[in-house]
Specification:
Layout lengths: L4 E8 L2 E8 L6 E5 L11 H8 L4 E5 L18 H9 L10 H14 L5 E6 L1 H12 L4 E7 L13 H8 L9 H15 L8 H14 L5 H10 L5 H4 L6 E6 L7 H10 L4 E5 L11 H20 L2
Parallel strand pairs: 3-4, 3-5, 5-6, 6-7, 7-8
Antiparallel strand pairs: 1-2, 2-4
């Protein structure tokens, strides 16, 4: 456990969620929501401490089907061919859960921790979950920050073909081939990283190794991907968001091209767009301070709106 963090597991929304809490428990909370198939430690302790230094309590957690939260292995691996066929034919496939379920998990965590309202920050799939929280539960979201995410608008450009191929290709099972699993994960992380700063292979490998140590849900990536695939176009939901909103996106993102972030900003009234040159689908340490500043600026906007200033 990182210095300064308090780690635990709680019952929330009918499952168990693992979480860390940094900073003063009496301060306003920033809730960090992780992306597809990744664990809360992708919100690194140094980034969390950047936000704590700005006066906030920071809570990060493992989404369902990742890390030390409840795994849904009883649902089995996702059959992507069947999923694609159902979507093509306009049928709704059978899912283990939806993004709305995952948003309810996050709300359940806030309830379990007696946090009435929070500044909600999500990356990639976590950005989608954060969007749902802010649109469907406006009384719980003081502000919204959606990082390297999208709206589900079907007319938006798709991910780079080679990135999709890498995502869909099964990774080696770390229980039998940890070195192969780590090499595969590092190769993917290198591909989606931006060009503004040299790729840190050592840091990427260490994060992947720590995720293996913390716990890996067999088939969890596929079940989460299916939830993203059927989430649909959220633009009408986003139009109802009233919380101060920040959209952070990189110009070099090969998974969600910049148009995805721009569409998100255009869909939310009053949203601020922060387009970062040469940032990819990652949040490297040299950007921590700038992104934390922007999150703080957005959070302060919520104070102004509440006070009527």
């Amino acid at each position: 456990m990182s210095p300064g963090a308090r780690s635990a597991r709680v019952a929330a929304n009918g499952i168990t969620l693992a979480y860390d809490s940094f900073g003063d428990g009496a301060a306003e909370t920033i809730l960090l929501i992780a992306g597809l198939g990744t664990q809360m430690i992708r919100w690194t302790a140094p980034f969390c401490r950047e936000l704590v230094a700005r006066g906030y309590r920071v809570v990060r957690f493992d989404n369902r089907d990742t890390g030390r939260s409840t795994h849904f292995t009883e649902h089995g691996a996702m059959d992507f061919a069947s999923l694609a066929s159902a979507l093509t034919e306009g049928r709704r496939p059978k899912l283990a859960y939806t993004l709305d379920d995952m948003a309810s998990d996050a709300l359940g965590l806030l309830n379990a921790l007696s946090i009435r309202r929070a500044h909600v920050v999500g990356r990639s799939m976590g950005g989608m979950i954060a969007q749902i929280m802010a649109s469907e539960h406006p009384s719980r979201a003081l502000s919204l920050t959606s990082i390297m995410s999208s709206t589900g608008n079907p007319s938006l450009p798709s991910a780079a073909p080679d990135v999709m191929t890498m995502m869909m290709h099964p990774a080696p099972d770390p229980a039998f081939d940890e070195a192969g699993f780590l090499d595969n994960g590092v190769a993917f992380a290198r591909r989606i990283a931006g060009t503004a700063h040299p790729f840190d292979e050592g840091n990427s490998r260490a994060l992947l190794r720590e995720e293996v140590r913390r716990g890996r849900a067999l088939g969890g990536f596929g079940r989460q991907l299916a939830a993203v695939a059927v989430a649909g176009d959220r633009r009408s939901r986003l139009a109802a968001i009233t919380a101060p909103t920040l959209i952070v996106h990189g110009t070099d993102d090969p998974l969600f091209p910049p148009a995805c972030g721009e569409d998100t900003a255009a869909s939310i009234p009053g949203a601020e767009m922060m387009l970062i040159p040469r940032m990819g689908h990652d949040l490297p340490p040299f950007l921590y301070s700038a992104v934390a500043d922007a999150i703080e600026r957005t959070a302060r906007r919520s104070c102004i709106s509440v006070s009527g200033g």
